Amino acid sequence: MRTARGALSAEEREAAAAEIDGPGTEEKDWRTARLPDRLPHLDLPEGPVVVVAAHPDDEVLGFGGTMAALVGAGISVHTICLTDGEASHGDGDGDGDAPARDTLAALRRRELAAALDELGPLHAPLHTGIPDTALDRHEDVATAAIAGLLSETGARLCLAPWDGDLHSDHEAAGRAARRACRATGTTMWSFPVWMWHWARPDDPRVPWRRAGVLPLTPVALGRKKAALARFTSQLEARGPGVPPVLPPEELAHHIRTFETVIR
């Protein structure tokens, strides 16, 4: 069971990992579902906007095209990345792995900076340095950091990973953002990341009644694709016989002509 702080039990972590590691839903199944025909189309939101990521790349995967459109419309967009994603190439629990984790963390920060530059003239991201894969044990720190940025920027809208995404860090980021939005009176939308992998069209675990789509112009989609290409650590094999974190079939879920949010 989750504690009041939102921490996951060992059983919950194992079940969620099995969903994410299992065979995913193919993008052709999502195309057949014709989500843009079934879900309401949303207007570009007013700003300032704060986008929360659990790891470097979450914000681009889930909302990068709309971020590019917002910047192109002259709307102020701020980002906060709660971890550096240093565990993406392994569990990284041993002390001997610390140098490799530090190297990967630094690389992923550079990749994120380059990716955001592709989206447009964005503010430099705020990094909190919370340990990767342990965000659910540091939700109070994350909540305070998000609330601080929302207040500092006068944000009218906050975007964060969906708290039903089945990835522990994503869910913790979503819960922290929700608490921060309640404390600051900020409207919140969520974006799914791994949901497209484990869910299926009409999946009852997904709150489709609260979902909407934001169509992307060719320019915005092009900027998003260029930004995603900057995350080479996630797109290339992690070692001999070890597939990338984001193989082509997974990336296909995130280069559509629209983005989906849960309100």
Automatic annotation (TrEMBL):
Gene Ontology biological process: glycoside metabolic process
Ranges where the record places region Disordered: 1-29
InterPro entries per record: GlcNAc_PI_deacetylase-related (IPR003737), LmbE-like_dom_sf (IPR024078)
Signal peptide: none
Keywords: Hydrolase, Zinc
GO molecular function: hydrolase activity, acting on carbon-nitrogen (but not peptide) bonds, in linear amides
EC number: 3.5.1.-
Gene3D superfamilies: LmbE-like
Pfam families: PIG-L
Protein name per its UniProtKB record: PIG-L deacetylase family protein
Organism lineage: Bacteria, Bacillati, Actinomycetota, Actinomycetes, Kitasatosporales
